Amino acid sequence: MATCAADIPEVGRHPVVVVTRDAAVPVLTSVVCVLVTNRVRGHVAEVAVGLDEGLREECAANCDTIFTLSKSALRRVGRLGPARLHELDAALAVALGLR
Questions:
Q1: What is the per-residue pLDDT across 37-96, written as a single tens digit (0 to 9) for each?
Q2: Is domain 2-95 annotated with CATH 2.30.30.110?
Q3: Is the distance from CB of 36 to CB of 1 less than 8 angstroms?
Q4: What integer pLDDT is reported at residue 9 of this predicted model?
């Protein structure tokens, strides 16, 4: 999963984590994203992300805020490693009511 700088309508430039599966991204025009925020609340639907993922500061991917964006609105800045992907999987399951 990639971390990107995104031009979000009515919000402006903001970091996101693309959660669309990598195999599908090349054939899609839009992808599913999770908002990244510097308001870290420490709840179960958040994943800590930051410098190791290509972001400018320590923040959180808030899996309660999921939306689609055109790929043209994204600029890749980094990638989540295996440990963060595992945390993201669990946080998405909680946010979507799958666990």
A1: 999 999 999 999 999 999 999 999 999 999 999 999 999 999 999 999 999 999 999 999
A2: yes
A3: no
A4: 86
Residue 91 near residue 44, CB atoms below 8 Å: yes
pLDDT at 1: 82
DSSP state of 71: G
Please state, in angstroms and rounded to a whole number, the distance separating the CA atoms of residues 14 and 24. Answer: 23
Scanning the structure block, which residue is given the tokens 């990107």?
Answer: 4
So where are the chain's domains? 2-95
What's the predicted TM-score (pTM) here?
0.93
Q: How many residues does the chain have?
A: 99
Q: Smallest Cα–Cα separation from 80: which of 9, 15, 12, 6? A: 15
Instruction: Report the distance separating Cα 58 and Cα 82, nearest Å.
Output: 18
Q: Which pLDDT does position 82 carry in this prediction?
A: 96
How far, in Å, CA of 54 to CA of 5, rounded? 10
